[in-house]
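Title: Comparing notes on inverse folding

I've been comparing how different people in this forum approach sequence design from structure. To keep things fair, I'm posting one structure and asking everyone to reply with a full sequence. Here's the target:
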């Protein structure tokens, strides 16, 4: 399901459809964010919950083709930050994972512990020494996502998996529906 179909619509800044990512090159031919239907509908509920508070989501990544997952693994080779496609094929490749942050009603990102794709201890959900405002915002995001069936990822404050991600197969073809 395309995330542009959600109402209210989250902001999209698909980092892998641009060179603004850890590989420094565009990995997607077009900025088309998709998730499996139940996952997208849960994300829509998060977006509605946050809108009532004057906040919203910005999506950095959603469904990811297996070839892109392999390219990322070949570069990082650290399972704390990138799934090894040979082990579980990845979460994004199933259309069940999303990378997000919080934005205010004008679309401005709220301060978070780190930037997206920060492969350091500071990006971990339990990182010590994070300024209070940043830690509070990350906790607020985590709680909003978990209320609607997502699970946080310990080493990336921005990454959330749908609760039943392992029950769904890797998407074969262009994108999930």
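Reply #1:
Here's my take.
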């Amino acid at each position: 399901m395309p995330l542009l179909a959600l109402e209210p619509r989250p902001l999209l800044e698909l980092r892998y459809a641009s060179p603004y990512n850890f590989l420094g090159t565009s990995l997607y031919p077009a900025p088309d964010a998709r998730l499996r239907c139940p996952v997208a509908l849960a994300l829509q509920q998060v977006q509605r919950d946050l809108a009532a508070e004057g906040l919203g989501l910005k999506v950095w990544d959603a469904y990811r083709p297996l070839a892109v997952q392999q390219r990322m693994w070949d570069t990082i080779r650290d399972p704390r930050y990138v799934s090894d496609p040979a082990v579980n094929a990845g979460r994004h490749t199933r259309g069940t994972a999303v990378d997000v942050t919080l934005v205010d009603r004008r679309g401005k990102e709220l301060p978070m512990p780190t930037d997206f794709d920060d492969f350091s201890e500071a990006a971990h959900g339990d990182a010590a020494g994070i300024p209070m405002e940043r830690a509070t915002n990350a906790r607020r995001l985590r709680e909003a996502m978990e209320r609607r069936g997502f699970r946080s990822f310990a080493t990336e404050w921005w990454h959330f998996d749908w609760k039943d991600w392992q029950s769904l197969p890797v998407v074969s073809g262009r994108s999930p529906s």
